[in-house]
Each structure stands twice: as C-alpha cells, then as structure tokens.
Amino acid sequence: MAAPLDFFDPHFHIWDVSDSTQSGHDAKVLFKPNGKELYLRRDYEAEFEKMPAELCLKGGAFLEALSVCHVGQSGPEYSASCLEEAAFAAEQLNDDSYVLVPSCALQQPDVEEMLRNMSVLSPRVRGIRQILNHEPNWPRNGVLGNLLENPAWIRGFQALAGAGLSFDMQLNPRQHAKAVEVVAANPEVTVIINHLGCPLLEDLQDGGEVYWAGMEAFAKLPNTYIKLSMLCYPDPNWDENELVLSALHRVIELFGPHRCMFASNFPVDVKDGWPAERLLPAFLKLAERYSEGERQELFAGSARRAYRCQV
C-alpha cells in the first residue's frame, strides 16, 4: 500500500463562545460545535479520527472568524477583539504544524499598527482575512458596505505588502471584477480566494458568466491561489451534483493544481453534514483523475507554498 498523502488543511477555525470568552468571539453570531462553547485544537484534530487511511493530517492554517463577529463595532474595541483572537489561536496552535491567519479591519486608521502587532504576536502569522461578502451580506458587511469600493480599505490592503502578509479573500461572484482590479494592482500581495469564490448553484448554471469571468481573470494573476472548500454552499450534496463537480475540475484546470487546495472548513462543514469521514473520501474521489504529483499539490503542496510553510 502506498504511503498516505499529507493533508495540510488550509482552512479551519477554533473558537471560544463562552460568556468569559478568551478568543474574542461572538456567541450571537457563531455556533457551539457539537454543543460545546469551546472548540479547541484537540477538538479540531479529533474530527479526523475517522479520516481515510490514504490521508494523514499534517497541520494546517487557522482562519479567523472575527470578521463576522461584533456587528456594528469598530475602532480600538474591535481591534482589541482581533488581537485577542490571534493570541488565542497562537496559544492553542503553538508549534510549527500550524500557521495563523487572523483578522483586522483593513479600513480602520490603526491598520498598520495592527499588522505590526499581529506579526510580533507570532512568527507563524502568515496573512490576514477579512470577509468581504456584500449583497448578500455576511454579518458585518451590512454596516460596512462593499469594502472593495472603500478607499480606506484599499490603502489597508496595500499595507499588507510592507508587512509581508498574504490576504485570504472571501467574496461574492458579483464582487470578483472589482477584486481582480485590486489584486492586479498589488502583485506583491499573495491572495488566497476562499471557498471557490462563494458561488451559489445558480452561478454555476447556464448564464453564470459573471462567476466564470471572475475565475478566469483571477487565474491569470500569478499571485492568486484558490481553496476548494465549503462546497455545500452551492449544494448540500455537492458530491452527487455533476454541475458542481464539473465546476471544480474547471477551476483546477484554470488555476492549475499547484494553485488549488482542498480545505476542511471545520467546524462549519461538520455542522453542515460534512465530517471527515464524508468530506475527505469525496476529495479523494475528485482527485482520482489527477497524477500523484498533482494530488500532492491539491492536498498539501499548494497550501504550504501559499502560506510559506515548510513542515
């Protein structure tokens, strides 16, 4: 039997939604995974006890959840919560198996100070994520608006280059065109597109030119990667939907396996019916048509390269 493939999971969360939260998270927005207020490293790693023998978990990238929390809050109070989340993640994931992608509000005047603070907090901070989905809005963006049209946010995004940080970009298909302009103008910032670019099923059907135009434009930019994740967003049973499966292969063809990465999105996808024993076999089946080297890229190589992780 061949040795198992490394799985470096480039997108998972941990949090504390108790009344005395140590992570700065917001119980009014986030849920209790498996009914528990604390979802820690041990809980995340336990999700993989039933993973297929063909794969071996080899760490991954913690992704923030603060950019959906504390709707309406801004300024120093919100920045303090972002630092609290980053410190919590750094303490929990305190070895080189994991890298960290915390959040900060790039449109705020304290952005450069925050980016410095994040890098000082842990050398394993590799990037920043701030959820951008607008119309339909993810929680904070009903107040913040379309950040891609905000000059202050653009300046904050530009500051990532000087800080040596990447950006995890989660957005809706109708925002892709503007985002491509921003990313193209900042080629020194590595951008990792989250969750396949957040298409709904209608975005993949006939008439989905907006989504595919965005994917083709992103793929032409050498500083972009894309996560094959949260696939239950377009269809709860995506592994049985030929439209979703063909879209995944088309995205892999556009970007190349060396810029695509499978990701768990735990604990969110677990809540939505996709535990490791269902999700990872579906990824393996999807990857069957690719060479061994390409599978290595999809399960670990691309993510390690994007996040500058050698483990």
UniProtKB/TrEMBL annotation:
<feature type="domain" description="Amidohydrolase-related">
    <location>
        <begin position="9"/>
        <end position="308"/>
    </location>
</feature>
<dbReference type="InterPro" id="IPR052350">
    <property type="entry name" value="Metallo-dep_Lactonases"/>
</dbReference>
<dbReference type="Pfam" id="PF04909">
    <property type="entry name" value="Amidohydro_2"/>
</dbReference>
<protein>
    <recommendedName>
        <fullName>Amidohydrolase-related domain-containing protein</fullName>
    </recommendedName>
</protein>
<comment type="similarity">
    <text>Belongs to the metallo-dependent hydrolases superfamily.</text>
</comment>
<dbReference type="GO" id="GO:0016787">
    <property type="term" value="F:hydrolase activity"/>
</dbReference>
<dbReference type="InterPro" id="IPR006680">
    <property type="entry name" value="Amidohydro-rel"/>
</dbReference>
<dbReference type="InterPro" id="IPR032466">
    <property type="entry name" value="Metal_Hydrolase"/>
</dbReference>
